[in-house]
Specification:
The structure is a homodimer.
Chain A: E1 6-9, H1 14-22, E2 28-29, H2 43-65, E3 71-82, E4 85-87, H3 93-103, E5 106-120, E6 123-137, H4 142-150, E7 171-176, H5 178-182, H6 186-196
Parallel strand pairs in A: 1-2, 1-3
Antiparallel strand pairs in A: 3-4, 3-5, 5-6, 6-7
Helix pairs in contact in A: 3-4
Chain lengths: 197, 197
């Protein structure tokens, strides 16, 4: 599968590149510099739209300079959704506190959209999908929320937490793909690529 | 919580020590050298019995030399169960093939038993619990099973797979605590310790 096809990850996320490597998919990283604005409101549409924008941007630039090459570009976007609202990255500690208060003693959703733009054997393809995982969080006291915020781990993370860090002690369980919550549904990506190539 | 209490992990598993450290619990490692034989047959009883044996063994040895100290010992044991059978570590590649054939296109269970033996403020306590997670595996071809076995990742792993390695691409989803599958239900352990101390 995918022999002699160059894989390009259109994301700067160290977690995504780790997951691809873990799955044995050697790849280069080329980050899209286009603005991340999506029109969609539903979380699954939103993440797929942004994943497409990133993958397409990198695809177009790469294609011009590598006309003879077989390659594919993977774009991805992850959001946390609680009570129907998309939670982005926190702008401040107060913002993080508000988000974590919504998540504690509750179940929320994590959506990752993935877009694959490929040019293999002269044939161009576009393929987009999303994966959803549910995450159940234990009740947290004010002190526990503040202690977690003080670690700084909440910064730069959608929904104000990272499942791989110290927040793990507050997660009662998940339903769905764990790696989807980390930032890339590597299993579904592998299964989809297996069907396509 | 647990200030001035020495935490001892009675396990040589690098994954368990990583999870404890990730949760911010500094600890020492003292591995039990007692034989790992349990009488129980049901997986949840089996893992709790072995966790108790390991924790108690290390507790007794440590206690004799640290009479004045506040400390607790954590023992843990993890098994994979499929169709009511406990799957241990594979004895050969053929054994691994048989186990993975049972797991593919199916849902199995992972049980971790945890035993905590403590001596805090002169009071001794014993506390044991287990956590169960369900794991759904995508259908795998013979070639995919053999490719995975050839990576060597299946060796020394209950059920012949590690969820953190290349096998991740074959896992459709889980229901329950991910870290329980890795080898230590760090969230439940934290919640139980919070109640006790």
């Amino acid at each position: 599968m995918l022999e002699n096809v160059n894989i390009i990850l259109a994301s700067a996320s160290p977690r995504r590149t780790e997951l691809l490597a873990q799955a044995g998919m050697n790849h280069k990283i080329i980050v899209s510099d286009c603005e991340e604005h999506a029109k969609a409101h539903a979380p699954e549409e939103y993440v797929m739209e942004l994943a497409q924008i990133k993958a397409e941007d990198v695809f177009q630039k790469y294609y011009k300079e590598h006309l003879e090459e077989d390659f594919l570009v993977i774009g991805a976007d992850t959001v946390v959704a609680a009570e129907g609202k998309i939670l982005g990255k926190p702008k401040s500690d107060a913002d993080a506190y508000e988000m974590l208060s919504m998540l504690q003693a509750n179940t929320h959703q994590v959506y990752t959209g993935v877009a694959v733009c490929s040019c293999v054997g002269g044939e161009m393809k576009r393929h987009t999908f999303f994966e959803r995982s549910d995450v159940e969080v234990y009740p947290m006291s004010e002190e526990e929320i503040n202690t977690y915020i003080s670690t700084g781990d909440c910064r730069d993370k959608a929904g104000s937490y990272g499942i791989q860090g110290q927040f793990a002690v507050h997660i009662k369980g998940i339903h769905g793909d764990y790696n989807n919550i980390v930032g890339l549904p590597i299993a579904k990506l592998y299964q989809e690529l297996k069907k396509e190539f």
